[in-house]
Amino acid sequence: MTTATKYIAHQADAQGYIDYSEHENQLWQQLYQRQVTNMPGRACPAYLQGLDALAMSVDRIPQLPEIDKVLLEATGWKTAAVPALISFGRFFELLANKAFPVATFIRTKEEFDYLQEPDIFHEIFGHCPLLTNPSFARFSHMYGQLGLAATKEQRVFLARLYWFTIEFGLVQAKDEPLQIYGGGILSSPGETMYALSDKPERRPFDLLDVLRTPYRIDIMQPIYYVIENIDYLDEIARMDIMSMVKKAQQLGMFEPKFSPKNQAS
Fold first, then answer.
1. 180: which strand partners?
2. Which reaction does it catalyse (predicted)?
3. Which end of the chain is more exposed for a tag (fewer CB within 10 A), N or C?
């Protein structure tokens, strides 16, 4: 999480507000309008309810105090403005204190469809709506507490749990359509369509399997894990996750379902 970045986060004023340029607000408007049309029928109901609750602006980048007001009332969470990339330690510390890190820059037009760094559209549009959901909020809090206490080696395995749930999780109740709750998918038009297509592999959520599944951040995911409903995150939170991490360490990783980075097309 701490590598070089070409993006520079904005500094907020004393009231927590940021003066974004007209160009930046236009980028938000374009991103929002393009992706919000993909949400009905594809995003899970809890996300859509959160999107309605946040009532974020279509025409400009939302200010974090506006988001905080809704989150605090709903689940006791708030946002935390951060630089483009932060350390694992800082990331876990924020979640453990019910603060969701938000990088205060927006992607360039050149990286409109995909960027490896989380920008404010990814964080606010992709993740914040579900932070109004109690199960999602509790799981995120628990995850931060676990990560804060974990060793450097254990955190590598915990990162996979976050990746295949919070970032790239899918949900499907019995006899219901497959839907999305992962913010990495919800903030990406391409992956929104791809994740629900017949191209990737999808498996029922299994904690040990998730902890042993490698991933790459710069490609469409070859595999997704599916939970039955958003409340299942509470059940995961009650599992003995760290004992499963130890077991995953002993068993080792699954064979990757993707090419090494330097060979990937």
1. 43, 170
2. (6R)-L-erythro-5,6,7,8-tetrahydrobiopterin + L-phenylalanine + O2 = (4aS,6R)-4a-hydroxy-L-erythro-5,6,7,8-tetrahydrobiopterin + L-tyrosine
3. C
Paired with 226 in beta bridges are: 170, 204
∠52-86-145 over CA atoms, to 5°?
Answer: 70
| CB atoms near residue 120 (< 10 Å) | 26
pTM of the shown model: 0.94
Sheet arrangement for strand 223-227: 179-180, 170-171, 223-227, 201-204
The confidence band for 109, taking pLDDT boundaries of 50, 70 and 90, is confident
Match 């974004």 to its residue by tokens: 20
pLDDT at 261: 75
| Known catalytic residue at 57 | no
Copy the structure tokens of residue 42.
Answer: 């594809």
Quick check: 234 and 178 in contact, CB under 8 A? no
> Out of 24, 93, 122, 191, which one is annotated catalytic?
122
**DSSP-derived secondary structure letter, 43:** B
Helix or strand holding residue 138 (H, E): helix 134-149
Q: What is the pLDDT of residue 264?
A: 38
* DSSP conformational letter for 166: I
pLDDT digits (tens, 9 = 90+) for 8-25: 899 999 999 999 999 999
From the candidates 24, 93, 123, 167, give the one annotated as an active-site residue.
167
Is residue 122 annotated as a catalytic residue, yes or no?
yes
Q: Distances from the Cα of 178 to the Cαs of 4, 15, 186, in angstroms?
A: 37, 41, 14
**Cα separation, 127 vs 77, whole angstroms:** 12
Integer Cα distance of 136 and 148 in angstroms: 18
Q: What pairs with residue 81 in β-bridges?
A: 102
23 noted as active-site residue: no
Query: Per the structure block, which two tokens stand in for 32?
Result: 């929002």
pLDDT tens digits, one per residue of 230-256: 999 999 999 999 999 999 999 999 999
